[in-house]
Fold this protein.
Amino acid sequence: MNKLLLAIPAAMLLAAPAMSEEKITLTEKQQAKLDKRLEGRTAGKAQSCISAQDQREMTVISDDILIFGSRRNANTIYVNKPYGGCRNADRNILSYSRPTSSLCKGEIIQLIDNSTGMSTGSCAFGEFVPYTKDAD
């Protein structure tokens, strides 16, 4: 029985990366918004963390796609797909606290209702994929 109890959390951890590879369905409006943000950019290698400067501007494309950017470096944005999605992310304020200035995969996002200020749930960041503007 003890072996089974240890195996369940391990299986859940192994399954977590696969969750970020789920097929994401976007509405036409969401797809257009994503296409506009990614236009003229090339995806780089996924990163576990992004710096504080790269967290300045966040855009919610859908419950499954968040984009982070920086005012200092407009050439690169980071696309994040929270593990298992982030239900109603577009209707709430996303709040996160971190022990360092970096924002990393696995950190928890608290969803705060815009009108009441009450917590409505949470989700966890996935990897951050950089998209850099192509050279002209």
